[in-house]
Structures are given as structure tokens and as C-alpha cells.
């Protein structure tokens, strides 16, 4: 973006590498402190990025602003993660900040259409991709997750509160009669934004760890939505995927149809 950068790290969540930038630290319940840091740094735009574990709200150490907001936060949290994130977006806007999406800040990391490495999905994998897309779209109103794993027309897993990594691990524990193996790869991890979510927050992300876990689970590949996912360290993702014989593929953003 060509603009000064200021980073607020959530204690216990953000990596220490943020200290190479102009930065501040705040605990999860200290909303007023985070707001003061943003104002002191004269920030105008805010980008919310990176995973944060859902907290035990009864154990949060709240500051005064956090205490005042707690009833509204709890009400949103009961409706799901999308509702909770949307609440914080609205609240930040009420404080005078413009909330921008990760793709606006990290545009060079947004996945373009096509294969990331040299391997592309075959006909069976393309059908599994369509099925995975259907699952994510169908569960949108339930605010469940952004990912699903399909193999030969069978849904093996749906991402829920545990996240993508744990979903991949439990897929690797399924009987090999329904999933692939490193010697005979089958199945696809499909990740895309939910239709109703605010795409400025919680855009799907993947990196080398995603490839490693998918490879260990015997999957044939990973599919993400072009323009709808962040790929960290793309060149290394491509190298690793090629090395293990998997595809990483960004499918075009299209309407969801019925798998053949």
C-alpha cells in the first residue's frame, strides 16, 4: 500500500517477529488499550489479520472499554464467529477507522486463478472440488467453517471449531478405504470464504504447513478460491506440493452447481 505500518500484537497469539515493525502489544480483553495504541499511532485504516483462538470469555481480563462492550460481544459470539468478527468491524468503524481487507494490504499474496505448482487437478478431483464448495455454501447460515474435504464424491470432513489443521489430522486417521494415502493420493481439501461473511476479515489462508498436513493425510490436493484466499510463501508452497505429488489449485469464483 506504500503507507506507514503499525502492528498491534495480541499477547499469546501474535508472533514476536512483529517487533521488527513499529508495534504495540495488547491482551485480548484490553480493547480500550488497543484503541489507545491505534489513536496514538495516528492510524486511519485497520486490517484484522491472523488466527486468534476463541477465548473463554469468563476468564478474560477486561479493561473498562472491554467491560462495557462485553454484553454486546457475548451476544455476537453466541451467533458464531462471523457474527463476532462483524461486530468488531462495525465497532471499529464507529470509532472512526476504515476497516480494510487483507487482500488490500497483502494483494501480492492473494491467490490468482490456476495451479500454484506444476500439478493440476484431474477430472475426479475437480468433481470433489465442486462438492467441497457445495458443502461450505450449504453450511453458510450455520456459521460452521470455511473448509471441507471430499474424496471420490464422499464428504470426509467439515471444518468446525477445531480449524483446518486438526480437520486434516483427523482425516488422516480415517480408514484408507475412504481416503487416499501418500502412495495413492485421493481427495481434496477445499477452502473458500463463506458466501455471507464479510470478506474484509477472516479470509482463508494457507501455507507450507497446510501442504504438509494435507500430504500426510493422503490428499491429492488443495483447492482455494482465486481472489478469496491468502497463500503465504507461495514459491515454497509450490515446491513442496510438487515434491510430494500434490496440486494446489485456485479455482475461479463461480456459482456453485451440482457435482456430476
TrEMBL record:
This is UDP-2,3-diacylglucosamine pyrophosphatase. It comes from Candidatus Phaeomarinibacter ectocarpi. Residues 112-249 form the LpxI C-terminal domain. It comes from the Bacteria. Residues 2-109 form the LpxI N-terminal domain. Pfam families: LpxI_C, LpxI_N.
